[in-house]
Amino acid sequence: MQRSSGIPTFARTEPPDTQVTKSIISLLTYYGWRKFSIIHEQLWKNVATSLEAQATRNNLSVNHVEMVFDNYKCCQEDMDCCRSGYWYTVIQKTMNRTRIYVFLGNSNQLVDMMATMDGMQLFAKGEYLVISADMMTYSPKLSNKYLWRVEKPPNVRNCLDLPGDFERRSKSLLVVVASEPLPTFEAFTHKVREYTQKEPFFFKQPSLFHQFVKYVSIYAAYLYDSVKLYAWALDKLLKEEEQHRPLTSDVIRDVASNGTKIIQTIINNRTYHSVAGATIKIDDYGDSEGNFSVLALKREFYEEANFSCVFQMRPVAHFQMRQPQHLNDTNQHRNDEIPEFKLSKVGNAIDWPGSDRPMDEPSCGFMNEHCMKDDTHIMSMVVAGVLALILFCAGVITMSIYRKWKIELEIEGLLWKIDPGDIKGYFNTEIVSSPSKVGIFFVGAFPGMMERACSSIPFPRALQLVNIYV
Protein backbone atom coordinates (compact mmCIF):
# COMPACT_ATOMS: atom_id res chain seq x y z
CA MET A 1 0.00 0.00 0.00
CA GLN A 2 1.31 3.39 -0.92
CA ARG A 3 2.25 5.76 1.88
CA SER A 4 1.45 9.48 2.05
CA SER A 5 5.13 10.09 1.37
CA GLY A 6 5.11 7.72 -1.63
CA ILE A 7 7.65 5.42 0.08
CA PRO A 8 6.34 2.00 1.25
CA THR A 9 9.21 1.65 3.75
CA PHE A 10 8.39 4.88 5.55
CA ALA A 11 6.32 5.53 8.69
CA ARG A 12 6.50 8.23 11.32
CA THR A 13 5.70 8.47 14.99
CA GLU A 14 5.55 12.26 14.89
CA PRO A 15 2.05 13.14 13.67
CA PRO A 16 2.01 15.25 10.49
CA ASP A 17 0.30 18.63 10.69
CA THR A 18 -2.68 17.37 8.70
CA GLN A 19 -3.62 14.90 11.46
CA VAL A 20 -4.89 17.72 13.69
CA THR A 21 -7.80 18.19 11.28
CA LYS A 22 -9.52 15.03 12.53
CA SER A 23 -9.55 16.38 16.07
CA ILE A 24 -10.92 19.72 14.83
CA ILE A 25 -13.73 17.90 12.98
CA SER A 26 -14.49 15.92 16.15
CA LEU A 27 -14.73 19.13 18.18
CA LEU A 28 -16.99 20.80 15.60
CA THR A 29 -19.27 17.78 15.37
CA TYR A 30 -19.56 17.36 19.14
CA TYR A 31 -20.98 20.85 19.61
CA GLY A 32 -23.14 20.76 16.49
CA TRP A 33 -21.15 23.29 14.48
CA ARG A 34 -21.87 22.17 10.94
CA LYS A 35 -20.77 25.40 9.23
CA PHE A 36 -17.49 27.24 9.71
CA SER A 37 -14.84 29.33 7.98
CA ILE A 38 -11.11 28.69 7.65
CA ILE A 39 -8.48 31.42 7.96
CA HIS A 40 -4.93 30.14 7.50
CA GLU A 41 -1.41 31.32 6.94
CA GLN A 42 0.47 30.34 3.83
CA LEU A 43 2.54 27.71 5.67
CA TRP A 44 -0.67 26.00 6.82
CA LYS A 45 -2.17 25.67 3.35
CA ASN A 46 -1.90 21.86 3.29
CA VAL A 47 -3.59 21.63 6.68
CA ALA A 48 -6.40 23.93 5.47
CA THR A 49 -6.87 21.77 2.37
CA SER A 50 -6.96 18.63 4.52
CA LEU A 51 -9.49 20.24 6.90
CA GLU A 52 -11.73 21.24 4.00
CA ALA A 53 -11.62 17.68 2.64
CA GLN A 54 -12.37 16.22 6.07
CA ALA A 55 -15.33 18.58 6.42
CA THR A 56 -16.77 17.45 3.09
CA ARG A 57 -16.44 13.78 4.05
CA ASN A 58 -18.27 14.44 7.32
CA ASN A 59 -21.08 16.57 5.82
CA LEU A 60 -19.80 19.86 7.21
CA SER A 61 -19.91 23.10 5.21
CA VAL A 62 -16.97 25.48 4.83
CA ASN A 63 -18.27 29.00 4.28
CA HIS A 64 -14.94 30.70 3.53
CA VAL A 65 -11.29 29.77 3.05
CA GLU A 66 -9.09 32.86 3.42
CA MET A 67 -5.29 32.86 3.35
CA VAL A 68 -3.45 35.51 5.35
CA PHE A 69 0.23 36.38 5.45
CA ASP A 70 2.65 36.69 8.31
CA ASN A 71 2.93 40.30 9.44
CA TYR A 72 6.73 40.27 9.25
CA LYS A 73 6.68 39.05 5.65
CA CYS A 74 3.97 41.55 4.75
CA CYS A 75 5.95 44.54 5.95
CA GLN A 76 9.26 43.22 4.67
CA GLU A 77 7.88 42.89 1.15
CA ASP A 78 5.66 46.01 1.45
CA MET A 79 2.44 44.08 0.86
CA ASP A 80 -1.12 45.27 1.49
CA CYS A 81 -1.35 43.09 4.59
CA CYS A 82 1.18 45.34 6.35
CA ARG A 83 -1.38 48.11 6.83
CA SER A 84 -3.12 48.42 10.18
CA GLY A 85 -6.62 47.67 8.88
CA TYR A 86 -5.70 44.39 7.21
CA TRP A 87 -7.35 42.10 9.77
CA TYR A 88 -10.43 44.33 9.79
CA THR A 89 -10.80 43.75 6.04
CA VAL A 90 -10.49 39.97 6.44
CA ILE A 91 -13.10 39.79 9.20
CA GLN A 92 -15.44 42.25 7.48
CA LYS A 93 -15.33 40.06 4.39
CA THR A 94 -16.39 36.90 6.24
CA MET A 95 -18.33 37.91 9.36
CA ASN A 96 -21.78 38.08 7.76
CA ARG A 97 -21.69 34.48 6.56
CA THR A 98 -20.12 32.68 9.51
CA ARG A 99 -20.10 32.41 13.29
CA ILE A 100 -17.37 29.78 13.84
CA TYR A 101 -13.79 30.43 12.68
CA VAL A 102 -10.95 27.91 12.47
CA PHE A 103 -7.60 29.70 12.52
CA LEU A 104 -4.39 27.98 11.35
CA GLY A 105 -1.30 30.06 12.02
CA ASN A 106 1.11 31.40 14.61
CA SER A 107 0.04 32.74 17.98
CA ASN A 108 0.85 36.40 17.23
CA GLN A 109 -1.48 36.37 14.25
CA LEU A 110 -4.12 34.71 16.43
CA VAL A 111 -3.85 37.48 19.04
CA ASP A 112 -4.20 40.14 16.32
CA MET A 113 -7.25 38.42 14.85
CA MET A 114 -8.95 38.10 18.24
CA ALA A 115 -8.21 41.74 19.10
CA THR A 116 -9.72 42.90 15.79
CA MET A 117 -12.88 40.86 16.30
CA ASP A 118 -13.14 42.22 19.84
CA GLY A 119 -12.81 45.77 18.55
CA MET A 120 -15.64 45.05 16.09
CA GLN A 121 -17.84 43.94 19.03
CA LEU A 122 -18.25 40.42 17.60
CA PHE A 123 -17.73 38.83 21.01
CA ALA A 124 -20.09 41.18 22.87
CA LYS A 125 -23.08 38.80 22.68
CA GLY A 126 -21.15 35.52 22.62
CA GLU A 127 -22.16 34.78 19.02
CA TYR A 128 -18.70 34.20 17.52
CA LEU A 129 -16.04 31.59 18.38
CA VAL A 130 -12.50 30.96 17.16
CA ILE A 131 -10.85 27.51 17.14
CA SER A 132 -7.09 27.58 16.72
CA ALA A 133 -4.71 24.69 16.09
CA ASP A 134 -1.14 24.30 17.31
CA MET A 135 1.06 21.29 16.59
CA MET A 136 3.42 22.14 19.43
CA THR A 137 3.06 20.15 22.63
CA TYR A 138 1.07 21.90 25.33
CA SER A 139 3.12 23.60 28.03
CA PRO A 140 1.51 25.50 30.94
CA LYS A 141 4.34 28.03 30.85
CA LEU A 142 3.76 28.83 27.18
CA SER A 143 -0.02 28.66 27.02
CA ASN A 144 -0.42 32.41 27.53
CA LYS A 145 0.91 33.09 24.04
CA TYR A 146 -2.63 32.48 22.77
CA LEU A 147 -4.00 35.32 24.94
CA TRP A 148 -1.50 38.16 24.55
CA ARG A 149 1.71 39.05 22.80
CA VAL A 150 5.05 38.97 24.60
CA GLU A 151 5.39 42.71 23.93
CA LYS A 152 2.42 43.89 25.98
CA PRO A 153 1.32 47.56 26.03
CA PRO A 154 3.35 49.74 28.41
CA ASN A 155 2.08 50.33 31.94
CA VAL A 156 -0.22 47.28 31.78
CA ARG A 157 0.28 45.11 34.85
CA ASN A 158 -2.85 42.97 34.70
CA CYS A 159 -4.46 41.03 31.86
CA LEU A 160 -7.84 42.62 32.61
CA ASP A 161 -6.27 45.99 31.79
CA LEU A 162 -5.44 44.92 28.25
CA PRO A 163 -7.42 46.73 25.51
CA GLY A 164 -10.94 45.46 24.94
CA ASP A 165 -12.95 42.93 26.92
CA PHE A 166 -10.18 40.47 27.78
CA GLU A 167 -12.30 37.90 29.62
CA ARG A 168 -15.09 37.66 27.05
CA ARG A 169 -12.58 37.66 24.18
CA SER A 170 -10.52 34.87 25.74
CA LYS A 171 -13.59 32.77 26.49
CA SER A 172 -14.38 32.93 22.76
CA LEU A 173 -11.21 30.96 21.98
CA LEU A 174 -10.55 27.20 21.94
CA VAL A 175 -7.12 25.81 21.06
CA VAL A 176 -6.41 22.29 19.81
CA VAL A 177 -2.84 21.33 20.76
CA ALA A 178 -0.67 18.25 21.02
CA SER A 179 -1.37 16.78 24.44
CA GLU A 180 1.03 17.21 27.31
CA PRO A 181 2.87 13.98 28.19
CA LEU A 182 1.65 12.08 31.21
CA PRO A 183 3.57 12.37 34.51
CA THR A 184 5.26 9.02 33.77
CA PHE A 185 7.12 10.79 30.95
CA GLU A 186 9.31 12.46 33.56
CA ALA A 187 10.95 9.13 34.38
CA PHE A 188 11.81 8.72 30.70
CA THR A 189 13.37 12.20 30.51
CA HIS A 190 15.48 11.38 33.56
CA LYS A 191 16.81 8.27 31.78
CA VAL A 192 17.54 10.34 28.66
CA ARG A 193 19.66 12.79 30.68
CA GLU A 194 21.47 9.90 32.30
CA TYR A 195 22.30 7.98 29.11
CA THR A 196 23.29 11.02 27.05
CA GLN A 197 26.17 11.58 29.46
CA LYS A 198 27.55 8.14 28.61
CA GLU A 199 29.20 6.65 25.55
CA PRO A 200 28.87 7.48 22.66
CA PHE A 201 27.25 10.88 23.39
CA PHE A 202 29.17 12.20 26.42
CA PHE A 203 26.78 15.16 26.92
CA LYS A 204 28.09 16.28 30.29
CA GLN A 205 26.12 18.57 32.55
CA PRO A 206 28.04 21.90 32.88
CA SER A 207 29.44 22.27 36.38
CA LEU A 208 28.32 25.91 36.65
CA PHE A 209 24.65 25.10 36.08
CA HIS A 210 23.83 22.27 38.48
CA GLN A 211 20.64 24.03 39.54
CA PHE A 212 19.26 23.76 35.97
CA VAL A 213 17.95 20.57 34.38
CA LYS A 214 18.39 19.78 30.71
CA TYR A 215 15.14 20.06 28.79
CA VAL A 216 14.14 16.88 26.97
CA SER A 217 11.95 17.55 23.93
CA ILE A 218 8.95 15.46 22.94
CA TYR A 219 10.96 14.50 19.86
CA ALA A 220 12.98 12.21 22.09
CA ALA A 221 9.79 10.26 22.72
CA TYR A 222 9.07 10.11 18.97
CA LEU A 223 12.54 8.69 18.34
CA TYR A 224 12.25 6.18 21.15
CA ASP A 225 8.83 5.02 19.90
CA SER A 226 10.13 4.50 16.35
CA VAL A 227 13.03 2.31 17.51
CA LYS A 228 10.75 0.37 19.81
CA LEU A 229 8.19 -0.21 17.03
CA TYR A 230 10.89 -1.41 14.65
CA ALA A 231 12.26 -3.84 17.26
CA TRP A 232 8.76 -5.13 18.03
CA ALA A 233 7.91 -5.70 14.36
CA LEU A 234 11.24 -7.40 13.67
CA ASP A 235 10.78 -9.72 16.66
CA LYS A 236 7.27 -10.62 15.49
CA LEU A 237 8.44 -11.42 11.95
CA LEU A 238 11.39 -13.51 13.18
CA LYS A 239 9.11 -15.60 15.39
CA GLU A 240 6.79 -16.21 12.44
CA GLU A 241 9.72 -17.10 10.20
CA GLU A 242 11.10 -19.50 12.80
CA GLN A 243 8.01 -21.67 12.40
CA HIS A 244 8.99 -22.41 8.80
CA ARG A 245 12.78 -22.55 8.84
CA PRO A 246 15.73 -22.14 11.19
CA LEU A 247 16.83 -18.59 11.95
CA THR A 248 20.26 -18.44 10.41
CA SER A 249 22.21 -15.21 10.09
CA ASP A 250 21.18 -14.97 6.44
CA VAL A 251 17.49 -15.41 7.33
CA ILE A 252 17.71 -12.80 10.07
CA ARG A 253 19.44 -10.40 7.66
CA ASP A 254 16.76 -10.92 5.00
CA VAL A 255 13.91 -10.32 7.45
CA ALA A 256 15.58 -7.31 9.06
CA SER A 257 16.26 -5.65 5.71
CA ASN A 258 12.73 -6.08 4.39
CA GLY A 259 11.54 -2.60 5.31
CA THR A 260 8.24 -2.87 3.46
CA LYS A 261 7.20 -5.92 5.44
CA ILE A 262 8.30 -4.41 8.75
CA ILE A 263 6.37 -1.18 8.15
CA GLN A 264 3.30 -3.10 7.05
CA THR A 265 3.49 -5.18 10.24
CA ILE A 266 3.54 -2.00 12.32
CA ILE A 267 0.57 -0.58 10.43
CA ASN A 268 -1.44 -3.79 10.74
CA ASN A 269 -1.09 -3.58 14.51
CA ARG A 270 -2.99 -0.26 14.29
CA THR A 271 -1.94 1.14 17.69
CA TYR A 272 1.07 1.41 19.97
CA HIS A 273 1.65 2.72 23.46
CA SER A 274 3.93 5.75 23.39
CA VAL A 275 6.56 6.36 26.05
CA ALA A 276 4.85 9.73 26.51
CA GLY A 277 1.95 7.83 28.03
CA ALA A 278 -0.73 7.88 25.34
CA THR A 279 -2.05 5.13 23.09
CA ILE A 280 -1.38 6.25 19.52
CA LYS A 281 -3.00 5.05 16.32
CA ILE A 282 -1.22 4.64 12.99
CA ASP A 283 -3.27 4.98 9.83
CA ASP A 284 -2.96 3.07 6.55
CA TYR A 285 -0.39 5.57 5.31
CA GLY A 286 2.00 4.95 8.20
CA ASP A 287 1.24 8.28 9.86
CA SER A 288 0.81 8.59 13.59
CA GLU A 289 -2.49 10.28 14.32
CA GLY A 290 -1.09 11.88 17.46
CA ASN A 291 -2.74 12.77 20.71
CA PHE A 292 -4.49 16.15 20.98
CA SER A 293 -6.23 18.16 23.68
CA VAL A 294 -8.53 21.21 23.78
CA LEU A 295 -7.56 24.29 25.78
CA ALA A 296 -10.09 26.79 27.16
CA LEU A 297 -9.95 29.75 29.52
CA LYS A 298 -10.06 28.79 33.19
CA ARG A 299 -9.73 30.84 36.36
CA GLU A 300 -6.20 30.15 37.56
CA PHE A 301 -3.72 32.72 38.81
CA TYR A 302 -0.66 33.51 36.74
CA GLU A 303 2.20 35.85 37.53
CA GLU A 304 5.44 36.82 35.90
CA ALA A 305 7.92 39.65 36.49
CA ASN A 306 5.61 42.68 36.25
CA PHE A 307 2.42 41.09 35.01
CA SER A 308 -0.36 38.96 36.49
CA CYS A 309 -3.63 37.41 35.43
CA VAL A 310 -6.40 35.44 37.10
CA PHE A 311 -7.00 33.38 33.93
CA GLN A 312 -4.99 30.81 31.99
CA MET A 313 -5.57 28.45 29.08
CA ARG A 314 -5.91 24.93 30.49
CA PRO A 315 -6.81 21.50 29.01
CA VAL A 316 -10.51 20.77 29.35
CA ALA A 317 -10.95 17.91 26.87
CA HIS A 318 -9.07 15.33 24.85
CA PHE A 319 -9.67 12.98 21.93
CA GLN A 320 -9.62 9.21 22.04
CA MET A 321 -9.99 6.51 19.43
CA ARG A 322 -13.40 5.01 18.90
CA GLN A 323 -13.68 1.35 19.70
CA PRO A 324 -14.86 -0.79 16.75
CA GLN A 325 -18.45 -2.02 17.16
CA HIS A 326 -17.75 -5.24 15.27
CA LEU A 327 -14.65 -7.32 14.81
CA ASN A 328 -14.91 -6.87 11.05
CA ASP A 329 -14.72 -3.09 11.46
CA THR A 330 -11.10 -3.08 12.62
CA ASN A 331 -9.69 -2.74 9.12
CA GLN A 332 -12.41 -0.61 7.52
CA HIS A 333 -12.38 3.16 7.01
CA ARG A 334 -9.34 3.57 9.20
CA ASN A 335 -8.04 6.68 7.46
CA ASP A 336 -11.32 8.60 7.77
CA GLU A 337 -12.06 7.60 11.33
CA ILE A 338 -12.70 10.62 13.55
CA PRO A 339 -11.59 10.42 17.21
CA GLU A 340 -14.12 10.90 19.95
CA PHE A 341 -14.26 14.15 21.90
CA LYS A 342 -14.16 13.64 25.68
CA LEU A 343 -14.22 16.18 28.51
CA SER A 344 -11.20 15.60 30.71
CA LYS A 345 -13.15 15.65 33.99
CA VAL A 346 -16.77 15.29 34.99
CA GLY A 347 -18.31 18.75 35.07
CA ASN A 348 -15.24 20.32 33.45
CA ALA A 349 -17.41 22.13 30.93
CA ILE A 350 -16.21 25.00 28.78
CA ASP A 351 -17.05 28.46 30.14
CA TRP A 352 -18.80 30.03 27.18
CA PRO A 353 -18.73 33.82 26.72
CA GLY A 354 -22.54 33.92 26.56
CA SER A 355 -25.34 32.04 28.29
CA ASP A 356 -24.76 29.03 26.04
CA ARG A 357 -22.40 27.85 23.35
CA PRO A 358 -22.41 29.88 20.11
CA MET A 359 -24.47 28.61 17.18
CA ASP A 360 -22.95 28.00 13.76
CA GLU A 361 -25.55 30.32 12.19
CA PRO A 362 -28.41 32.59 13.36
CA SER A 363 -31.80 30.97 13.91
CA CYS A 364 -33.21 32.72 10.83
CA GLY A 365 -30.09 32.06 8.74
CA PHE A 366 -27.34 34.40 7.66
CA MET A 367 -29.62 36.18 5.13
CA ASN A 368 -32.90 35.66 7.03
CA GLU A 369 -33.70 32.87 4.57
CA HIS A 370 -35.20 30.58 7.23
CA CYS A 371 -37.78 33.14 8.41
CA MET A 372 -39.69 34.10 5.25
CA LYS A 373 -42.62 36.50 5.72
CA ASP A 374 -46.07 34.78 5.44
CA ASP A 375 -49.34 36.11 3.91
CA THR A 376 -50.59 37.31 7.29
CA HIS A 377 -47.62 39.58 7.64
CA ILE A 378 -48.13 40.96 4.13
CA MET A 379 -51.85 41.58 4.80
CA SER A 380 -50.96 43.43 7.99
CA MET A 381 -48.60 45.65 6.02
CA VAL A 382 -51.32 46.41 3.46
CA VAL A 383 -53.91 47.23 6.15
CA ALA A 384 -51.39 49.47 7.93
CA GLY A 385 -50.68 51.28 4.67
CA VAL A 386 -54.40 51.84 3.95
CA LEU A 387 -55.01 53.17 7.46
CA ALA A 388 -52.07 55.52 7.12
CA LEU A 389 -53.48 56.82 3.82
CA ILE A 390 -56.94 57.34 5.37
CA LEU A 391 -55.47 59.21 8.32
CA PHE A 392 -53.49 61.41 5.96
CA CYS A 393 -56.56 62.27 3.86
CA ALA A 394 -58.62 62.94 7.00
CA GLY A 395 -55.93 65.28 8.23
CA VAL A 396 -55.87 67.19 4.93
CA ILE A 397 -59.69 67.55 4.93
CA THR A 398 -59.73 68.64 8.57
CA MET A 399 -57.11 71.28 7.91
CA SER A 400 -59.10 72.59 4.91
CA ILE A 401 -62.32 72.86 6.95
CA TYR A 402 -60.49 74.55 9.77
CA ARG A 403 -58.93 77.14 7.46
CA LYS A 404 -62.33 77.89 5.86
CA TRP A 405 -63.92 78.29 9.29
CA LYS A 406 -61.18 80.68 10.39
CA ILE A 407 -61.66 82.82 7.27
CA GLU A 408 -65.43 83.02 7.77
CA LEU A 409 -64.94 83.88 11.41
CA GLU A 410 -62.68 86.76 10.48
CA ILE A 411 -65.22 88.02 7.91
CA GLU A 412 -68.05 87.93 10.45
CA GLY A 413 -65.89 89.93 12.84
CA LEU A 414 -65.95 92.82 10.35
CA LEU A 415 -69.82 93.16 10.17
CA TRP A 416 -70.01 95.83 12.97
CA LYS A 417 -68.48 98.42 10.64
CA ILE A 418 -71.08 100.84 9.06
CA ASP A 419 -70.76 102.08 5.55
CA PRO A 420 -70.71 105.93 5.66
CA GLY A 421 -73.11 106.04 2.76
CA ASP A 422 -75.88 104.45 4.84
CA ILE A 423 -76.11 107.37 7.32
CA LYS A 424 -74.85 110.34 5.23
CA GLY A 425 -77.21 112.90 3.86
CA TYR A 426 -79.63 113.44 6.79
CA PHE A 427 -77.55 116.28 8.30
CA ASN A 428 -75.05 118.71 6.97
CA THR A 429 -72.39 117.21 9.17
CA GLU A 430 -70.90 113.75 8.76
CA ILE A 431 -71.62 111.75 11.91
CA VAL A 432 -69.04 109.12 11.17
CA SER A 433 -66.28 111.64 11.45
CA SER A 434 -67.44 112.85 14.86
CA PRO A 435 -65.86 111.53 18.04
CA SER A 436 -67.75 108.90 20.00
CA LYS A 437 -68.84 111.36 22.70
CA VAL A 438 -70.50 113.61 20.09
CA GLY A 439 -72.32 110.63 18.69
CA ILE A 440 -73.63 109.66 22.13
CA PHE A 441 -74.77 113.26 22.81
CA PHE A 442 -76.54 113.35 19.48
CA VAL A 443 -78.51 110.21 20.21
CA GLY A 444 -79.44 111.41 23.68
CA ALA A 445 -80.55 114.91 22.63
CA PHE A 446 -82.56 113.97 19.59
CA PRO A 447 -84.00 110.50 20.11
CA GLY A 448 -86.93 111.07 17.82
CA MET A 449 -84.79 112.32 15.01
CA MET A 450 -82.48 109.29 15.41
CA GLU A 451 -85.44 106.98 15.28
CA ARG A 452 -86.69 108.55 12.04
CA ALA A 453 -83.21 108.37 10.56
CA CYS A 454 -82.83 104.72 11.43
CA SER A 455 -86.26 103.92 10.03
CA SER A 456 -85.00 104.74 6.56
CA ILE A 457 -81.99 102.41 6.96
CA PRO A 458 -82.36 98.69 6.28
CA PHE A 459 -83.15 96.75 9.44
CA PRO A 460 -79.78 94.91 9.90
CA ARG A 461 -77.85 98.09 9.53
CA ALA A 462 -80.22 100.05 11.79
CA LEU A 463 -79.92 97.37 14.45
CA GLN A 464 -76.16 97.53 14.29
CA LEU A 465 -76.26 101.32 14.50
CA VAL A 466 -78.50 101.32 17.55
CA ASN A 467 -76.31 98.76 19.30
CA ILE A 468 -73.29 100.88 18.72
CA TYR A 469 -74.71 104.21 19.91
CA VAL A 470 -76.82 103.08 22.86
Features:
single chain, 470 residues, alpha/beta, Rossmann fold, two-stranded antiparallel sheet, 15 helices, 15% strand, peptide receptor activity
Question: How many helices does DSSP assign?
Answer: 15
Distance between the termini: 131 Å
| Count of strand segments | 10
Radius of gyration: 46 Å
Strand content: 5-15%
CATH architecture of one domain: 3-Layer(aba) Sandwich
Question: Uncertain spans, ≥5 residues at pLDDT below 50?
Answer: 431-446, 452-457, 459-470
Q: What would CATH call the class of one domain?
A: Alpha Beta
**Could you say which overall geometry the principal axes of the C-alpha atoms support?**
elongated
Order of helices and strands: HEHEHHEHEHEHHHHEEEEEHHHHH
The strand order across the widest sheet is 2-1-3-4-5-8-9-10
By CATH, the topology of one domain is Rossmann fold
The major pleated sheet works out as:
8 strands, mixed
Q: Write the CATH homologous superfamily of one domain.
A: Response regulator
Alpha-beta classification: alpha/beta
Mean pLDDT: 83
Fraction of residues in H or I helices: 25-40%
Can you describe what's shown?
With 470 residues, the protein is α/β, with parallel strands linked by helices. The chain has a domain at 1-181 and 278-388: Response regulator (Rossmann fold, 3-Layer(aba) Sandwich), CATH 3.40.50. Helix content is 39%, strand content 15%. The strands form two sheets. Strands 2-1-3-4-5-8-9-10 form an eight-stranded mixed β-sheet. The protein has a two-stranded antiparallel ribbon with strand order 6-7. A hairpin with a 4-residue loop joins strand 8 and strand 9 (308-320). Helix 1 packs across helix 2 (45-57), helix 8 (218-242) packs across helix 9 (249-256) and helix 8 (218-242) crosses helix 10 (259-268). The longest helix is centred in the C-terminal third of the chain and has 38 residues, at 375-412. It is elongated, with a radius of gyration of 46 Å.
